[in-house]
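INFO batch 0412 | record 1 of 1 | parsing
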Amino acid sequence: MTLHQIKEVVLCADDYALNAPVSQGIVALAVLGRLSATSVMSLSPRWAEDAPALRDVRERMDVGLHLDWTSRFAIDSGHGSGLGAVMVRAALRLYNQKHIEDEIERQLDAFEAHWQAAPDHIDGHQHVQQFAVFRHALAEVLMRRYGDIAQRPWLRVSQVAQPGLKAKVISAMGSKALQQWAQAYDWPCVWPLLGAYGFDGSMDDYARHMQSWLASARDEKPTLIMCHPAVSAQADDAIGAARKREFAYLAGHDFVQHMFDAGVRLVRGSGKTMTEIN
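INFO prediction complete | emitting tokens
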């Protein structure tokens, strides 16, 4: 296999600081070189506690903000709701854009307070970053906050390049509009998005999903694959069992072999080097 045949993938672990097993799993996989990005839930009370461990691997991966309107943290903060309610309100343009801008700023402030740097990227829990009103608010905040810096945070565009109803719904909720804005303002973004599935099945089933996603990676630009690993399943986590399966697969030899078979290497969406850990 020649260098020109190798495809590039940004493998991003979502939900850092959701709970201890998630944070521990993401750091462990980063040490192994099995991830190239992670997205932080800055509303979580654990973020302050879990940030130092992530700083130890910051040269290995991009670290970004996971904008949140649908988790228990967002609901407890007073601005959040369940995904269905958020999707309906966004589609009907019932949100106040200024209020959303203020909340995005608050989550960015919370991220930077413990990271002490701008995020490498910005995406959204359950893809909220691209919903109507939300994407307009995000665009305003991005230009105001990072428009003049040399290394702008890249955006996840959740244009899902795989079959299935869930993938079609994700893509329909504004991915094309967000991508068009990014192109118009020369804002870096990574797309299409792979990694959507029902969080069901066995570890072998997840391995087959990953093989399919790796085989679907684009030749010309990096493809983004999202994942949700954790070292163990926490009782109050609805997808805890799936997280544990994902971690076991990503930490194992089969994943390395499947990347080799697909001609894939992991890269950072920011373009920064994935520095080896001594």
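INFO post-check: The chain has a mean pLDDT of 92.
INFO record closed
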